[in-house]
Design brief:
The protein is built from 10 helices and 3 strands; from the N terminus they run αααααβββααααα. It is mostly helical and 226 residues long. A 3-stranded antiparallel sheet has the order 1-2-3. The longest helix is centred in the N-terminal third of the chain and has 18 residues. The radius of gyration is 23 Å and the shape is elongated. The termini are far apart. The model has no long low-confidence stretch (mean pLDDT 91).
Length: 226
């Protein structure tokens, strides 16, 4: 406050960013602050890049929570609802993202080749993942009972099943089984990848099944696998 705006120099900006770090502001907030400062000088004032040598804080990569095979089995079997069981089973056994599961159509289930086709996945890419035999058995029973029309899992009043309903299904199963780990829907996908790695599946194959563009993203699971 003691300086006019046009008197502020790079030293002041560095000290400001240092203060944000000392006050434990989040990494994303600090990066947004740097972007805002750069935008003001470079776009608003039309000045050349003055802050190319400012070090940005790097995001901490936390290792994912992983469920054991036994915990997965308990969670899937904890529900008596066939539809809910199929949802949890496919999320795990095919390693799907929640959005990918919600967009699955009946035609995406290839029971001849035991594959599931994922269309327009993250990065606008199509890919295939595994279809487990036990999941297929339940799916056939589910189809006869619920008779979905277009999407594999449909809502009562909408063509898509809701993302919040999947969260509720998982939370209910976790509470029923008394599992204390911090489990999210994505934890099932993390567990799928880790269990494949533990069973000796090549990491590049896991990369393809997950739809990762970068192998380094998949390599994270080598740090949590037994």
């Amino acid at each position: 406050n003691s300086k006019e705006l046009d008197q502020i120099d790079e030293n002041d900006i560095r000290n400001y960013l240092k203060l944000l770090t000392q006050n434990n502001w989040s990494i994303s907030y600090i990066n947004q602050s740097i972007n805002s400062i750069k935008f003001y000088y470079e776009i608003v004032l039309g000045m050349p890049n003055r802050f190319y040598d400012i070090d940005r804080p790097k995001k901490k990569r936390k290792l994912p929570e992983i469920l054991s095979k036994n915990e997965i089995k308990k969670i899937i079997n904890a529900t008596n609802n066939l539809k809910h069981k199929c949802i949890l089973s496919i999320l795990y056994s095919s390693g799907l993202r929640r959005s990918e599961l919600l967009n699955l159509k009946l035609a995406d289930i290839d029971s001849e080749r035991m594959l599931i086709k994922i269309n327009d996945a993250k990065g606008n890419k199509d890919r295939y993942s595994l279809l487990s035999e036990s999941a297929l058995i339940d799916l056939r029973r589910y189809y006869l009972q619920y008779q979905p029309k277009t999407y594999l899992f449909e809502g009562q009043k909408s063509p898509h099943y809701s993302a919040s309903s999947i969260r509720k299904i998982l939370r209910k199963s976790i509470e029923k089984m008394g599992i204390t780990k911090k489990v999210k829907v994505h934890t099932l996908r993390h567990s799928f990848a880790t269990h494949l790695l533990e069973n000796g599946t090549d990491v590049r194959m896991i990369q393809k099944l997950l739809g990762h563009n970068n192998l380094n993203t998949t390599m994270m699971y080598t740090q949590v696998a037994n």
